[in-house]
Input
Amino acid sequence: MLKLEQLQADIGTSYTNKLIKRLHKFAYIPPKVLQELATQALSEKWAKDLHVLEKYLAVHVAWSIEQGKVTFSDDQFYVSAGNLQTRYGTPLYLIFIKGTDVTKAPWKLIKAGSQINAPALPAPPEIPKGPEIPKGVEIVMQHDHMLKDNEERVSFLKDAPPVAQMCAISGAIQWSLNRGLHLPYWYYGSMNYLVPLYLKDRENITNAPDLVAPIQIANEMLLVRTVLEPHMPYANSRVSVKRHDQLPPWMIDTWNAHADAMDVDDEDSE
Output
């Protein structure tokens, strides 16, 4: 008889940014089944090799197991495919069995669809909420990584002294936070926030920002490790909402413009 405790041991720690690698260590995901899921789900851009869909499953399958949103039969277990639905609003589910090769992943995905024969249908996991953003705390930035290692992203600031660069980004973060423009963002095993940075023009905040900054709340400070181009964090933002159209229009538009050309390495750039 399959037990939840075994799944929780097999899925491992959530403190990682290598989400797809974590999923692959847990279960073999046949490309054919992944494609079947993409075909049945409400249409959206999942990028090359359905990379964003696989990352979405990596997060939501883990949440289901961690939260106990799993049902069992004698030799299979069932989880929801996150909050994915068909175009008619029918929930989608995943069926896993024990893997047959002890040297590889302990589980195998065998079916994805809206019609499954399960003793009980699993509920989707709860999307975790991020912590409250404290007011008036210091914004701490990893300057060398942000502005030297990735200087092509901030080329319009290249002639400014380092302190001026940091003040510009810090000010843009605070400006957006004050207006509630931040959005949820899954990062290293917890829900954090993504903040749009309007550094050149603030006349229309429905337009795409110049950059975006993932922020982490830690020890009464806001930690900023990097800045990204607006389309780059789409995958980690997508897992954080039930439907892709709950993301800001600027994020969907910039993602749609870049999705087909995105490399996996670019997707995880920091």
The chain has two domains: 4-113, 139-259. The first helix runs from residue 4 to 11. The beta strands are 27-28, 71-72, 76-85, 91-98, 107-113, 138-141, 183-187, 190-197, 211-218, 221-224.
